[in-house]
Design goal:
HATPase_dom, six-stranded antiparallel sheet, alpha+beta, kinase, serine/threonine-protein kinase, disordered N terminus, Anti-sigma-factor_SerPK
Amino acid sequence: MGGDPGHECCQGPETTAVEETIALSGDGSCIAEARHRTAVFLNRLATAGCGSAVSECILGLAQLVVSELVTNACKYAPGPILLRLRRAEAAVEVEVWDSHPEIPVAEQADPYRVGRHGLEIVKAVAADLTVRAEAAGKRVVARIDLRPSA
């Protein structure tokens, strides 16, 4: 397959990315960039015939998950960060890699705790969440169902 190695393509007469890997600096401005690139990616899937349009609700959830995961990476790892977005059947996978080796754990819900709710939020809205150690750093993958809930 030719072209950008960070992209896989749909099969058919029109092709576009169903996967995109984005290198982020790790500074605070990369959170807004990650949210924007997520919206562009999801909108591009629909216009390229890789599925129907993504609802505003699902788009918002995907951007929320990206914000929380990238914010955690910016806060705890010394950059850079890799954000990988991938269409996987009727879901989108949001994968964030950072160089910090510590595996995050969602805390129990506590309405009196200020902060540290990011992973708890991601677990609540994602269909699946996995965290795995890498040779360098860790990889957090959240799977968001693209189908509207009943």
